[in-house]
């Protein structure tokens, strides 16, 4: 049973690498990859549908540009891709590359958004940086990008039907 699963996964990877879909992804599987400002992308598997990608980066670190003390944050990335999606390992190496850089919270949040928008050209993207307390103050920075002319589809709130359910328990 285990041998079959391993073989199946190997065959799936062989099929994926034979297509051109992932030719631009070079960092994935590279054990020697170092932190870098390079963001790799891959083609959106379903560009005809608006779908929401949510990522949480819980270990973001940069340095205070004045004191050199570390600043820690959770970065939330929400986006609706157009033709490209960001590859996760390159995103990880990208965020780690800020570890020894002095950055104001507002500046680094906007830089992350700008770099991701440049790489992926999404329909919509929001970067939320929730920095941990510094000097008794929590800082949250939210930066957004919206592709010209793009409008979100109306939100469907399925929880709204719960109280109106005709099933009684």
Account of the 3D structure:
With 169 residues, the protein is α+β, with helices and mostly antiparallel strands. It has one domain (2-151): GTP cyclohydrolase I, C-terminal domain/NADPH-dependent 7-cyano-7-deazaguanine reductase, N-terminal domain (GTP Cyclohydrolase I, domain 2), CATH 3.30.1130.10. Helices cover 24% and strands 29% of the residues. The protein is built from three helices and six strands. It has helices spanning 2-17, 88-96, 105-120, and strands at residues 41-43, 53-63, 70-80, 84-86, 124-134, 137-146. It has a four-stranded antiparallel beta sheet with strand order 2-3-5-6, with helices on one face. The protein has a two-stranded antiparallel sheet with strand order 1-4. 19% of the residues are buried. Residues 1-18 have low confidence and may be disordered.
């Amino acid at each position: 049973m285990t041998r079959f699963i391993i073989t199946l996964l190997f065959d799936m990877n062989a099929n994926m690498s034979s297509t051109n879909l992932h030719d631009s992804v070079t960092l994935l599987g590279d054990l020697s990859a170092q932190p870098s400002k390079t963001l790799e992308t891959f083609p959106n598997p379903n560009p005809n549908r608006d779908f929401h990608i949510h990522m949480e980066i819980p270990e973001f670190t940069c340095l205070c540009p004045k004191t050199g003390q570390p600043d820690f944050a959770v970065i939330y990335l929400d986006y609706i891709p157009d033709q490209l999606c960001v590859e996760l390992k390159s995103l990880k190496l990208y965020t780690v590359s800020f570890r020894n850089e002095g950055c104001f919270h507002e500046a680094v949040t906007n830089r992350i958004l700008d770099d991701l928008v440049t790489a992926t050209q999404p329909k919509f993207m929001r970067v939320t940086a929730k920095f941990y307390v510094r000097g008794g103050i929590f800082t949250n920075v939210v930066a957004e990008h919206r592709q010209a002319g793009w409008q979100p589809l109306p939100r469907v709130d399925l929880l709204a039907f719960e109280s109106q359910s005709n099933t009684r328990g």
